[in-house]
Write a structure and sequence with these properties.
The protein is α+β, with helices and mostly antiparallel strands. It is built from 1 helix and 4 strands. A hairpin with a 2-residue loop joins strand 3 and strand 4.
């Protein structure tokens, strides 16, 4: 019987393997967290763009249907993110207008959308 104290090489290797597996799991969790955060940042920016487009449409005396691209820079994304803003105006039979703002953008190959709608009363004659 040996009377030496300490860890054998096999014990050290097993401990390192367990640590490696734990660190890989934590790394994947961090990557998912960062991606989820970016999706939320882009959604928040889409909401801001939609609200600006809706305000512009409501303040326009004669709004028309149109489509524009809006590019915003984010963090280290080369070229920024392009949001496609579609404005649709539908005039109801008794005069009011339904204003619809649809936004679309792509993040990591997946298309995301956001839509808002408002009714503007008919102008006084």
């Amino acid at each position: 019987m040996s009377n030496e104290k300490g860890f054998s090489l096999v014990e050290v290797m097993v401990a390192l393997l367990v640590c490696l597996i734990l660190f890989l799991g934590m790394t994947q969790t961090v990557v998912l967290g960062i991606d989820s955060n970016m999706v939320n940042v882009l959604k928040s920016e889409a909401i801001n763009i939609a609200e600006q487009a809706m305000t512009a449409a409501k303040n326009d005396t004669n709004p028309t249907t149109n489509s524009v691209d809006v590019t915003r820079d984010f963090r280290n994304i080369s070229g920024g993110i392009t949001f496609t803003v579609d404005r649709t105006i539908t005039t109801l039979t008794d005069g009011p207008m339904v204003i619809t703002i649809d936004l679309e953008w792509t993040w990591k190959g997946q298309t995301h959308t956001h839509s808002i709608q408002s009714v503007r009363r008919a102008p006084d004659a």
